[in-house]
Design brief:
Elements lengths: L2 H9 L3 E3 L2 H6 L13 E4 L3 H16 L6 E4 L14 E4 L7 E5 L4 E4 L5 H10 L2 E2 L12 H7 L6 H4 L6 E7 L5 E4 L4 H8 L4 H15 L1 H5 L27 H4 L8 E8 L1 E2 L5 E7 L2 H12 L7 E6 H10 L15 E7 L4 H17 L3 E5 L2 H12 L1 H6 L1 E2 L2 E3 L13 H14 L6 E4 L4 E4 L2 E3 L3 H20 L18 H5 L1 H14 L15 H4 L20
Parallel strand pairs: 2-4, 3-4
Antiparallel strand pairs: 1-2, 5-6, 6-10, 7-11, 8-9, 8-10, 12-14, 12-15, 13-14, 13-18, 16-17, 17-20, 18-19
Helix pairs in contact: 8-19, 16-17
Bound molecules: flavin-adenine dinucleotide.
């Protein structure tokens, strides 16, 4: 074992290992890239995180850079949870719910907590955390915060950033900060500190003040966005200042989260669900817009396309039995209302069906739990595509998260279908109709040179298409390594320079998850492409807590 490993083993209470099998295990995540860490640490507490960062900072001051990648359960689809240095793995020990206040609905958690476990606990108190990702049963709350994750309920409730109230964060030099919205006076106090924290506040404030016009232009015309740094949300017009929204979605590149205080909201499982069957994309776009604009927005508007249904019909026909008849519609959109007032809920559902009737769209409406569950199973069956393989042909997450302005939805779908057709691929899609955010994973064989080249062509064409439509490269999964090379194209040179300055302010030695989000080119990521793709073993390999 190296001197670094020995030193850390002696000073940390969590486990430290440089075993080859462990390093190999953490060399991949849910994405298509591979990078082997030199060391794996399972921090037992915040003190372990502080000691590690202080140590690597001191080494960096002497010219030796050992980066740190934070990791939850490694389901990241863009290669953000891999790194060449220290892998800091949270779910083993730092996985508790620390506090829950049923009155205010605020919950304080450690980052390694399984999201699904938190959600289940909240349900028993009649609450929930709405922006849950579809991966919540096998991913952590820390990963969701770091990615600004979102999901099927984001249409009505918002993304993770909207729910995180405050964070405890270990900075690159080992100092701990507690973020929350500060008044102008409190900000001045912070800026007066002689510590690294003070320096971060001072630098960030001058970056914001010096680049007001550029930062004002950051807002894209999309309903949710996980690309780049949320610098525009830090300082409000009244002078208040909060690093929390910036940390959310920063993918471990600005600091390491050790605690999060999160707002939860009342949960109403008694919903009304409509399944609408569309044969015409133009009508679908129009109906989706009109229903989204009702006085109470639906809690979800989720879609699957015809190709997904055909895929299921071929590989798992029982799943569709009695639910969907042939010939399949071009799109099925599930429209859910969850208003706590049952009369309002039913009224909204009725209004939605009126819109569908007017446009001649077939639909089915359900309020019975068992029937609703069956309809939801159509949408959730997308998991069958992701886990399917034919030999070495795997469904790859390379273009899985683009979002466009809502009025460009039809153009987006047509453009994507054309692109795949050109490459001789038949690709199913699913996702968030209400947000114009769709997911798709083309089947390719990464052991074949031709398919490896094709993957990068598709990546390039797809992100250019999304950007040309005024969209964002990531609605929910964030940039990672995969989308980092397209950030400059997405936001333009000036905004990108601001992002670089933000990174530099927090992490002058490039110790925190380098190669993710910022200063990455396509040439940087090409050599990291895996020669096989699988997600078979994600989430295991943890010491017992
Ligand atoms: C089948 C499938 C479905 C998915 N569905 C969705 C979806 O619906 N919506 C969605 O948003 N995403 C989705 N994802 C992507 C991913 O699962 C989520 O973003 C999830 O929240 C990541 O959690 P994780 O624990 O796996 O994080 P990881 O993959 O371990 O890490 C994700 C990022 O967070 C950083 N990080 C982790 N812990 C910390 C910490 N303590 N401090 C600082 N940074 C940290 C990592 O460095 C990395 O950059 C899906 C993935 C898969 C495989």
């Amino acid at each position: 074992m190296s001197k670094v490993a020995h030193y850390l083993q002696e000073h940390l209470s969590g486990e430290v290992t440089a075993a080859k099998s462990m390093r190999k295990y953490f060399s991949t995540d849910g994405g298509v890239f591979e990078l082997t860490p030199s060391l794996v640490i399972y921090p037992r507490n915040e003190s372990d995180v502080r000691k590690t960062t202080r140590f690597t900072w001191q080494l960096a001051e002497r010219g030796r850079v050992i980066p740190i990648t934070s990791r939850g359960l490694g389901t990241d689809q863009a290669g953000a949870a891999i790194g060449s240095g220290i892998m800091m793995v949270f779910p083993a020990h730092m996985n508790r719910i620390l506090e829950f206040d049923g009155g205010s609905g605020k919950v304080t958690v450690e980052p390694g907590l399984l999201y699904g476990k938190l959600q289940q606990t909240l349900h028993t108190h009649g609450k929930f955390l709405p922006p849950y990702p579809s991966s919540m049963e096998f991913s952590t709350i820390g990963g969701a915060v770091a990615n600004n994750a979102s999901g099927e309920k984001t249409l009505k409730y918002g993304c993770t950033r909207d729910f995180v109230k405050s964070l405890r964060v270990v900075l690159a030099n080992g100092e701990v900060i507690q973020t929350r919205r500060l008044s102008k006076r409190e900000l001045n106090k912070k800026m007066g500190l002689t510590s690294f924290e003070g320096e971060v506040y001072r630098t960030l404030d001058s970056i914001i003040e010096d680049n007001k016009d550029v930062i004002d232009k950051i807002k894209l015309n999309v309903s949710k966005n996980s690309a780049g740094y949320a610098i525009a949300d830090v300082k409000h017009k009244n002078g208040s200042f909060d690093l929390t929204p910036l940390m959310v979605g920063s993918q471990g590149t600005l600091g390491i989260i050790t605690e999060a205080e999160i707002q939860t909201v009342p949960h109403n499982p008694k919903t009304s669900l409509i399944a609408a069957f569309f044969d015409d994309l133009q009508i679908a776009e129009k109906a989706i817009a009109q229903i989204r604009d009702l006085s109470q927005i639906p809690s979800a508007m989720e879609l699957v396309d015809e190709k997904l249904l055909k895929f299921l019909d071929k590989h798992n026909p029982n799943q569709l039995k009695g639910l969907v008849s042939k010939p399949f519609s071009k799109l099925i959109v599930l429209i859910e209302f969850d208003d706590s007032n049952q009369r309002t809920q039913k009224r909204m559902a009725k209004k939605a069906t009126k819109i569908l009737n007017k446009m001649g769209v077939k639909y089915q409406i359900e309020t019975e739990d068992s029937e609703k569950e069956k309809l939801w199973s159509i949408r959730h069956s997308a998991a069958a595509v992701i886990s399917h393989s034919e030999g070495n042909m795997k469904a790859l997450p390379i273009v899985e998260d683009g979002i466009v302005p809502e009025d460009k939805f039809q153009q987006y779908i047509v453009g994507v279908n054309k692109m795949f057709e050109k490459h001789g691929l038949d690709v199913a899609f699913w996702g968030h109709a209400g947000n114009a955010n769709i997911h798709m994973q083309p089947f390719l064989d990464l052991s074949q040179v031709g398919d490896r080249q094709k993957a990068f062509k598709i990546i390039d064409e797809y992100y250019s298409l999304v950007i040309s439509l005024g969209g964002s490269t990531s609605g929910e999964h964030s940039d990672g390594r995969l989308r980092a090379p397209y950030l400059k194209q997405l936001y333009g040179e000036q905004v990108y320079t601001v992002f670089q300055k933000v990174k530099q302010a927090f992490d002058p030695y490039d110790l925190l998850n380098p190669g993710v989000k910022i200063d990455v080119t396509v040439d940087d990521i090409k050599p990291l492409l895996r020669h096989e793709y699988s997600m078979d073993h994600l989430g295991h390999h943890l010491p017992r807590s």
